[in-house]
Amino acid sequence: MLFITTYKVKPFLSQEDTKKLLEAFSKNGPGPGTKAHYVAADGSHGVVIAETDDLEGGYRNLQNYLQWVEYDTTPMLTIEQALPHIMD
């Protein structure tokens, strides 16, 4: 399955909390199946593209960062997958 996750770092993170977040990411890394991870040039948010069937692993990975980051994840279809259903 293909997932698009957008995220925002929670507002008003202290320098100490930012350091803890980066240490957690250094230790735990990205979720399973991560194909790309982008950060907006203005630092406002990020986008992760992942392809995996390991939903539990992805959920487990998000738990590492929830105290600092807010997530919105959407399962996606390719246009080739969606088109037959749209045409029905």
Give a structural overview.
36% of the residues lie in helices and 32% in strands. It has helices at 15-28, 55-63, 79-87; strands spanning 2-9, 34-39, 46-51, 69-76. The chain has a four-stranded antiparallel β-sheet, with no helix packed on it.
Given the C-alpha coordinates, what overall shape results? elongated
Q: What integer value in Å does the Rg equal?
A: 15 Å
* Count of alpha and pi helical runs: 3
Strand line-up in the sheet with most strands: 2-3-1-4
Largest sheet: 4 strands, antiparallel
Q: What proportion of the residues form beta strands (DSSP E)?
A: 25-35%
What order do the helices and strands follow?
Answer: EHEEHEH
Q: How many beta-strand elements? A: 4
Question: What is this entry, summarized?
Answer:
The protein is of the alpha+beta class and 88 residues long.
Descriptive key words:
88 residues; alpha+beta; 3 helices; elongated
Break the fold down into its secondary structure elements and pairings.
Elements: E1 2-9, H1 15-28, E2 34-39, E3 46-51, H2 55-63, E4 69-76, H3 79-87
